[in-house]
Amino acid sequence: MNILFTSSGRRVALLNYFKQVYQQQYINGKVITADLKNNAPSAYFSDKHMIVPNISSPNYLEELIKICKQESIHLIIPLIDTELTLLAKNRHLFEEAGVKVLVSSVELNEIASDKKKTFQFFVENSILTPKVYTSEELEDKAYKFPLLIKPLDGSSSKGVTKIYNEKELIFFREYIPNAMVQEYVEGTEYTVDVMVDFKGNIKTIVPRMRIETRAGEVSKGVTEKDTTIINAVEEVVNLLPQPAGCLTLQCFKKSNGEITFIEINPRFGGGIPLSIQAGANFPLWTIQASKGEIFNVQDYSWQENLTMLRFDEAVYTESIQYAN
């Protein structure tokens, strides 16, 4: 079982958890990474690191397929939003080469990658979500402050800004590309990790309360077995078109107990190490699902109230060659 993690970047903890499962389960295989850069920290923790062109490059897929054949890859796990739809659309190219891609349907990835489509999905399925204001409503000032503004196609909370007055609204609508203005929601924010097989059957749901974030990624969090959130997330996942693998949903729990959803990310989230450390074995389940296993029994034996406090570590090396 050779796995290729694409856009591996700084996802060292996730790689290490997969390698740990290889050892514990006596799985023979390699964890291989691919990234645009040769100085990606993950390169120093994988069994082999491959340099690939930018995702927008016309030969990106060709290079991935070449790596898959060269390294006898069984499974590809993409780790950033920008390549999910691309890989979903071209899944057949990899399947022809005998490679499974851990990616949800094209439809789901298109819903997740466009915030207005995400909003429309929630509204059409009667799922509570913050109101998104139309241009007409903004012109008519049919809103009240504070508001939230963010890019339609953004990720990692880039460009997400709380707006307090008209002056800020005018400025940030021009400053932020593809800006979307929505209702600001008060409540406790949760990131929720979900594991499903390739038929959409749920293995587990792990809510993580976000205590603190840095650069859009959770830096402090705690697992909670909140049945209200778990049940609400299960309802949403069952409505998604052909989900597969790890999904990460974001929601708020309001003071009145309502669960309001804001985002869907059909990939491993940056805070997944907390869920794995708590006992939700996403790496093992990923391998099992890729081999065709169906999840007939759910698993909620993971540890509640496990807190994660993240900090920086460094890799020191003299082996990197930089172009002049």
Question: How would you sum up this structure, described in words?
Answer:
This protein is α/β, with parallel strands linked by helices. The chain is 30% helix and 25% strand. The protein has 11 helices and 14 strands. The protein has a 6-stranded antiparallel beta sheet with strand order 13-12-9-10-11-14. Strand 1, helix 1 and strand 2 form a beta-alpha-beta unit. Keywords: ATP-binding, Ligase, Nucleotide-binding. It comes from Metabacillus rhizolycopersici. Residues 119-293 form the ATP-grasp domain. This is ATP-grasp domain-containing protein.
Q: Assembly type of the shown chains?
A: single chain
The largest beta-sheet arranges its strands as 13-12-9-10-11-14
CATH topology of the largest domain: D-amino Acid Aminotransferase, Chain A, domain 1
How many domain regions?
3
Q: Tell me the CATH architecture of the largest domain.
A: 2-Layer Sandwich
**By helix and strand content, what is the structural category?**
alpha/beta
Number of strands: 14
Order of helices and strands: EHEEHEHHEHHHEEHEEEEHEEHHE
Distance between the termini: 38 Å
> Treating each run of at least 4 consecutive H or I residues as one helix, how many helices?
11
In what range is the share of β-strand residues? 15-25%
Rg (C-alpha, Å): 20 Å
Q: What is the 3D form?
A: globular
Q: Which sheet architecture does the biggest sheet show?
A: 6 strands, antiparallel
Q: What's the average pLDDT?
A: 93
Fraction of residues in helix: 25-40%
Stretches where pLDDT falls below 50 for ≥5 residues? none
Name given to the CATH homologous superfamily of the largest domain: ATP-grasp fold, B domain
The level-1 CATH class of the largest domain: Alpha Beta
